[in-house]
Description:
- The protein has six helices and ten strands.
- 22% of the residues lie in helices and 21% in strands.
- Helix 1 packs across helix 6 and helix 3 packs across helix 6.
- It is α+β, with helices and mostly antiparallel strands.
- Strand 6 and strand 7 form a beta hairpin.
- The strands form three sheets. A four-stranded antiparallel β-sheet has the order 1-6-7-5.
Amino acid sequence: xxxxxxxxxxxxxxxxxxxxxxxxxxxxxxxxxxxxxxxxxxxxxxxxxxxxxxxxxxxxxxxxxxxxxxxxxxxxxxxxxxxxxxxxxxxxxxxxxxxxxxxxxxxxxxxxxxxxxxxxxxxxxxxxxxxxxxxxxxxxxxxxxxxxxxxxxxxxxxxxxxxxxxxxxxxxxxxxxxxxxxxxxxxxxxxxxxxxxxxxxxxxxxxxxxxxxxxxxxxxxxxxxxxxxxxxxxxxxxxxxxxxxxxxxxxxxxxxxxxxxxxxxxxxxxxxxxxxxxxxxxxxxxxxxxxxxxxxx
Length: 297
């Protein structure tokens, strides 16, 4: 499933076309994805202007001029692409061949820019695990998809002090705590593995060990907060990881996977200077965890 950097990359790829554009019409080509489309989906969007396109955790949010918000999630294989004029070719070279079947284009937004230029924003999802939902005006923060989410792992809000407060007295493994969307929103398996490696912390250690008995952050908490912010920033700059079916909005691949230090590198030498360890793989809560037991304590 695409993680936060992939979703942010998609948002940036769409914003230049979608922000400020008027939705001329919407082709809704099936009644549902993972969930049913909202009632009067096309009718409520037609004629509206997209004021802004934002991201919350792994959700994209289109803010419309009447206060309505369209929340979308990519699921396992969902993607957006932009087409202009009569050119329906999708640019880019793909790691895995991308579906080109019209049957997988489930929602087509016909747009008009402030300058009168026409374009189409198309949501394609072969597996149909993605979805689109409405948040009524003034009710975005209380929407069930968003209301329980924790702090964003970008910016200065995520600090060692905050992680110590969130994880204090928790006996759950550190990796599991980081994947808990109620605590830190948007982190996924790939970037948690990478952040823990950068912070020299074992995914097995109890989450509460990064806080003192009085709830103050240890040095480990500070290292972890910095590692999370940096690995997310590096991945966004690289355009995401392009695993499975993920591609950027313009059809091109991301390349952060070439910088993976531990993820999917089982049996390879640790890349940390001075470490002679080997990357191991174990399963935690049904997910593969990659780490170096020599330098992650």
